[in-house]
Amino acid sequence: MTIDLGERSYPILIGPGLVDDVRVLDEAVPRRDIMVVTNEVVAPLYLERLLRGLQGRRVGSMLLPDGERHKTLETASRILDALVVARMNRDACVVALGGGVVGDVAGFAAACYQRGVDFVQVPTTLLAQVDSSVGGKTGVNHPGGKNLIGAFHQPRAVVSDTGTLRSLPVRELRAGFAEVLKYGLVADAAFLAWLESNLAALLALEPDVVARAVRRSCEIKAAIVAADEREHGARALLNLGHTFGHAIEAAAGYGEWLHGEAVGIGMLMAADLSSRLGWIGGAEVERVRGLLRRAELPSSAPAIGAGRALELMAMDKKVLAGRIRLVLLARLGQGVVSGDYPAQVLHETLASHFGSAA
Amino acid sequence: MTIDLGERSYPILIGPGLVDDVRVLDEAVPRRDIMVVTNEVVAPLYLERLLRGLQGRRVGSMLLPDGERHKTLETASRILDALVVARMNRDACVVALGGGVVGDVAGFAAACYQRGVDFVQVPTTLLAQVDSSVGGKTGVNHPGGKNLIGAFHQPRAVVSDTGTLRSLPVRELRAGFAEVLKYGLVADAAFLAWLESNLAALLALEPDVVARAVRRSCEIKAAIVAADEREHGARALLNLGHTFGHAIEAAAGYGEWLHGEAVGIGMLMAADLSSRLGWIGGAEVERVRGLLRRAELPSSAPAIGAGRALELMAMDKKVLAGRIRLVLLARLGQGVVSGDYPAQVLHETLASHFGSAA
Question: Does A84 contact B137 at a Cβ distance shorter than 8 Å?
């Protein structure tokens, strides 16, 4: 399948065993100088296979430490140093092998090196395969907030080897599922129903079910990104649950909660708020809660209090001129971006999930 | 005048007394949160006037240390910190008040903050007014090379107050003139002749002459940038003298030579090489040398030897697949980008300017 962005269009290749598939890699990765960026957990599993698949090119590689707390400007700077030391030219290509952190930081380094070099994503987590590797957002965190530093830089290809998900810790697999669920909630009621029927098979990594879930997620994201590459409008739909979720992640300190876990609860809050506004019914909120439970994702937020939660949400960058615009649900399968709700209803929703204590 | 880049088009406002002209600033700078980035030399001269001109907005400001050696990722990171601390949102605007270093590093920070916020250039040096503030190249140096880290990020306006050039050290004024001369050499023989006639008035900062030189330089740059925003082709013409010049700057250590001084000699070498190829005559090389001398710009390169110079040039990022493409002169007023010359002729040119010793 293809992400359609005019001259910045690129293919997404999905299936088992692609990480060392020479034919696929020849399509995705230019036959020029390559710098593979990966991390200390992924490298022992897949680096050798990828390097074998890339033979015939001058290839360097570098390992990052594992974890969100290393998604920093300093880490991006280390990648830039490696590109300089390897004397990579403007026609070099950075290949990110790993999860969302590796992809985001390596993509940002590719965006900045010589004002932008080519970049290929080889995501090895479900979250990265369905979300972070697609759409061109790259970046690093700042002590003041997540992804505050970054660039829009589209990859020239995404190679999603669904076989690599077998090595993923089950907690991360479940967290990735939250983003899959997001696509059904904001854009496709039929996909949502299909997920309800195939949840067990998906989490058991049945190859056809996984490939279909990844493909459909990428299709939905691709359509939204094609309509709004730089997030001026529709792309904000992809933030369903994220503003609430950021408050959870920020309160606990980055890394305590997996991103997908926080987003999962955030989506439940968005559904709850939509129901309080009379847009969807209580039964539909329970369908969301039921999916989280069956996926063994948390559905209870930490008791940080509604006031603190609101404060953290207001610091999130989706705030425009002080007014919190949220992604809500007009119905299951149709998200809407809105700042047009009574503040009191937001407060009640927050109090019901975060508690009312300060 | 306007830089025509479709939806990224922007105005360049040129004239004396613009730095505190409320009407001009209201056209150029949005009425939103503003972060003025300047440096410790420029701030005492113009910051207060600019802030007065920006009244009615929430404005923060920060001072960088002066000098090319501070054009680093660390300095960009300090600007990003300041934006976070001031809780600037995605609709904030960074205003760069100063020379090329301030503009390049502040522009790069604006490109990275929240994946890109608005950015206005208020250049106060001749170099910045005729070159670095126009065209959207932003970036910082790396110990391995100049401008190795950066982004293409167009400003939303450029405000060139030609009155600020009165406070510029004469050495910097002369170095800026080298870039003005460049436009005549690559693109406009009539402008070149006009410069020969008006050199003394220009260096004496006669207001009409300065404004015309800045405007014509920006027009030429604008036309070239509009044809080739991301430097895939014609934009490389703007690098006349730069590949040779980089060798001079790198050999001496950044900061010893002013950029324009090194570029001036580099243009003379490009003319010399073009003459050795029979494209222009010796008299035309002497016209270039004469202009440098009359502007009291250096015309002799340091004796680093042809071999070392070639090595430094090959490290420059304009090298594509190991082959040095240079901007040469088909005639005075018409640059051409070419890698199609005998290596021996390049070597002779380098030996004649840099000496033949290792």
Answer: no
